Amino acid sequence: MKQTFVQDIGQQLQSAVFSSGLTTKLICLFCIIGYFLSFNPQCVQALAVIPGHVMPPNFWIWTFLTHGFIELHIWHTIIDVIVVFLYSKMIEPLWGTNELLRFYFIVTIPNALFATCFYFLFYGATFNEEYLFQRPIYGLAAFLGAYTVVIKQIMPDTVLATTPLFKLKQDQVPLLIVLLSTILWFVHAVPIHFLIMLSFGIIISWTYLRFFQPHQNGTKGDTSTSFSFASFFPSPISPIISLFANTIFEIFVKLKLCKPFVKKYNVSSPSSITITIPGPEAADADRRRQKALKALDDRMKQKQTITETWPELDETHQSQLLAQTHQTQNSSITIDMTNSNELTSTLTKEDLNQLFFDTEQQQQSTS
User: Fold this and answer.
1) Is residue 96 within 8 Å of residue 26, measured between CB atoms?
2) Given this model, what pLDDT does residue 93 score?
3) Burial of 245 (0-12, 13-18, 19+ CB in 10 A)
4) Looking at domain 12-213, does it have CATH number 1.20.1540.10?
5) Among candidates 48, 52, 108, 72, which has minimal Cα distance to 190?
6) What pLDDT, in 10s, does the model give residues 200-255?
């Protein structure tokens, strides 16, 4: 059992590695290289985001690109590599390599900028220079939070675990990992920048997927109800979160930072009205419909193959059929009309007897 479980895990990891694209493999390779470079403190200072070095006159702006590849602990590196491979395996076939790479930079670069601003605020409140020069910002915590948001968008109703007290759904994972990271920060298991980057990774990824991500059908964002900001929270407090989120959205619309949701009405048919709400091409309803149609098509194909398949004959059945065919061939009558005056017939014994009796009856009747 243990060997089978280990073999299954090895096969899944191997398939994830070989099925991923070049971009994913390069990101994972840079994460592994960054971990080994982290043993050198000078490399950490040069590649991680140091708020004091970003300020003038240093302007180490390149660290906003390289900070995600630096990890100081091996288990952080393993988690980053696994998350990147799983993310690419599920998302790259749907989005494409360019969109996957763009989403990576949209999540990581602004996230490092927000974490730097928070460090400046901590320094202003405490006048502790450690926040400026001795506490680097690094890692892919932002990408980990973004990954949970993407999975929520694709599979919002998935039940991950069932217990006698509650059911853990995919909708609850982003908030759950934020609470878990907060507990780990209180016990000094993770640094403060991990919690900041994880939280803002969720917010930034949701904002981009909700309002700005372009799709092939010309629409932007995902306006489905299952992907609203209130759906990230438990149902007792979701109405309060929804009111708060709608208020912020209206403010952003007035500031022209976001566009209002537009509904299109199709009144060409007098019997019905079709309402089209812009959203992603792979919205929840379309995904469920496609999955249902695919499952139905597979079942129909299986039934057709079963009905169209003829039963195979074993040797005994074949020998019986050959014997019957041989008997029918022996009892047949072959007539060869070679000349108009001659008649040659090949008859069986029963046919000759019957012909003899018929001839005698004819003679008696004529006599």
Assistant:
1) no
2) 80
3) middle
4) yes
5) 72
6) 999 999 999 988 888 887 788 888 888 888 888 888 888 888 888 888 788 878 87
